[in-house]
Amino acid sequence: MSSKRVIFIRPGETRWNRLGRWQGQVAIPLNDHGRQQCERLAQFVRPIGIQALYTSDLRRAQETAHILAARLPIQPVADARLRERHIGIWQGLTQQEVMEWYSDEYQALLASPDDYIIPGGESRRVVAARMKAAFDALVAGAAENTIGLVTHTTAIRALLGVLLPELDALSMEFNNMSVTSLVATADGWKLTQRNDVTHLEGMPSTDFPEMEKQA
Fold first, then answer.
1. What's the total number of domains in the chain?
2. CB burial readout 43-56, b (16+ within 10 A) else e
3. Do the domain assignments include residue 214?
4. Whether residue 127 has pLDDT greater than 90
5. Counting C-beta atoms within 10 Å of the first and last residue's C-beta, which end of the chain has fewer, N or C?
């Protein structure tokens, strides 16, 4: 029997990605470039072998999932647990604006990166817990061996920090429309592909540093 494989897909680019603004859980749509990125990956979806597709219910993720699913005989299933971290009062701001306008709060985040709760938002530990709950449930409940999860940068980093604690998840990059894969082994999950954007064939793709990292 084949091993379970989970493929994480970060959504395509949005206007706020281009402007360097933190999106959090705001309902930002893909821009034209982001939709073109999705179409590029969609050309490779069948060879990748995705048999079931789950997505964050945020707009940019659902748009990404539906473009990909158009090439598959499946429909994406939305799950709110796959959402990006809610960053409260910082949603829509750049990192520089946060550092200047909310310097005390930002220093508190740096002092306690896992447990600090952004005003009006949530902590990384909470994100990790809901992502782990979603991951466990979706993997256990899927009859298929290969499932795709369309989710977000901080959400992926937080989950990988739990599944693969030997990794420095905070420093891992995840570009728009990147693919990252895990395979189940007898010793646990193994990272087999990280931040792969070769399918974009040179199309620009952005990455945000984790907010706990200094700009």
1. 1
2. eebeebebebbbbb
3. no
4. yes
5. N
